[in-house]
Structure formats: C-alpha cells, structure tokens
Amino acid sequence: MTFQKMIVLLMVLCFSATCLAQGYDFLVREAETKMQAQKYEEALALYEKAFKSGEFHYKDYYNAACANALLGHPDAAFDYLNKAIEVGFIEKQWLEEDTDLESLRQNQRWQEVMDTLQEKVEALESAFPEAHAEEMIIDLPEPRFDSEISVEEALKNRRSIRSYGDVPLTLTEISQLLWSAYGITKTFENAPAFLRGGLRTAASAGARFPLELYVMARNVTGLPAGVYWYKSEEHKLVTISKEDKWEDLSAAAFNQPHFRTAAAAIVYSAVFERNMIKYGQRGRERYVCMDLGHSAENVYLQAYALKIGTCAIGAFTDIRLKQVIGMTRKEEPLYIMPLGKVE
For residues 230 and 257, what is the distance between their CA atoms, to the nearest angstrom? Predict the structure, then answer.
C-alpha cells in the first residue's frame, strides 16, 4: 500500500470514528453531562443536534424541556414535554416534583400538560387486568425444610449484594426462595377467605397477607425467560408473559448495576385494600410496609443459605414497573429483589 493510500485510509477511518462518536447516544450522554454541570445552553444544543438524527427517547425530550425551562424558554419547554408524553413519558410524579420545571407551573399550559398526562396514565391503569388468567401453570419443586446453614449463621453473614456471577439459577432454587418469602406453612379447615390458603412463612398484620410476588426470569434452568406470578396458596407459578422483559425491568429501575448479571428477580406488590378494610389508613401507611419487611428478610436469609446474592431495590418508576410485570389493577409495586449466584 502506498503512503498516499495509507493517508486516505486513515482519513476515512478518522471520519468514520467521528461520525460514530457524534451519534445519538454520544450526544445525549454529553448533554446529560452538561446538564449536571448546569451548562444548560450547551446541553440544549446537544439535545437538538441529537434529535436531528431522527432518533429520540422520552427521557431526552423531558431533559430538553428541563433545559428550556431553566433558560426561561417556556414555549419550547412545553413543546418538549408534550413530545415526551407522546412517545412514552408517564412519570407524573416527576412533573409534580421536579424543581427544574418550577418556572412553568404558573403558566396556563401547565394544567393542559398535566391533564394530558393524567389521561394517558388512566388509560394505562384501565388496561391492567382485574385478575390474572390462571393459565400456563408451572408446578414448583417441593421446598425443603432444613439445611446445613443455621438461622444464626444466616443472620450474622447476610448482606445486600449487588454483583452476581453471570450463571444460571435453578427452578429448585427459585422455588425455595419463593416459599421462604410467602409460602404456606399451616392450613385450616373452613378458614376465612382473606387467609387465601393459610398462614405463611412471613408474619402479617391480622393475617391479611396483602403482598403479591412475581418472578422475572432471565437465566434460570428449567424456567424460560418471562414473567411469572407466584400463586402462594398452591406453590405454583402462573405465566404472565413468555416475553423476555429483562431490559424493560432494568429500565424501570433506572438501569441500576444489579441487573447486569442477575439471573432473576422477585418483584413485590401489594393490594392495599386487603389491609385497609380492617385497619384503614394505618393499614396502608404502616402495616403493609411491616409485612414487606418480614417477607423480604426471609428472602435475604434463604438466599444466603443457597449461596445466592440479593439486594432490595425501592428506586423505580411505579407505573412503568407495574406495566412491565403485568400486575392487576389493584396492585401497587413495592420492591425488586434481583437474584444471582455470589461471585
């Protein structure tokens, strides 16, 4: 190859690298950096350049709205907010609490945006099922009731673990974890309906048992990737979705590092009215949270005994997580517990 041809090739490679570097993802990452540095004009210029590529994401439209609001450009800010809602933004609480948008809240267009978003959220809520269709049922392996690990050892050594070996879990391990979380330990004849099968491994205020548990499988031997509801009274899984939604789960939880190698996750929700019918608002504000803590600690202890790591996550977008999992209308999401082998 001649020297001239080498120069031409290098120029082509450099040009290609520059084009790649100036792609959408690169531009929005740079824009986010500028936003964090409070360089809003530079951030906005980068966002606008990114959008000219024809790509977009509701999060980036939202950030562009924030930049415009902070720069005193209300019309442009509202235009970007409407675009964000149009392409998937549903985080109403963000709009209500984000201080970057404070300058917009007295504008007459603010209520219009809130109404548009509320309509979208209500449409999503109405699409959630009243109950799960109990089809495609999977029988779980019977749980075991003893091990070589003592309760005291598990209590002493249990930790929140955020990094896992990228290896599969087994259906037997998933079964054991679910039973530990909310499995039936005692049944009664002619028991009241609210018991839903009997007493469980986790204590519950008034035995109202408000929690629901789901498993999202990513890498589980014997369990295809998908979403499953734990029918605790029968120790079975009901298939909610055969679609691999792991990336959606991660996105709903702001792409926290736990999800990079976890093999599965337990997702908790609650039907608050089960408690409120007896305890009123105190049942919602206090007792459901107590029940969640009882159950989640069981998962921590059982996970340690199985050499599995987990970490309870509460940072996620509620309605987006509810949508990803396919919860019923009355449920509200509470927790995500990623699961993976300890490295």
Answer: 25
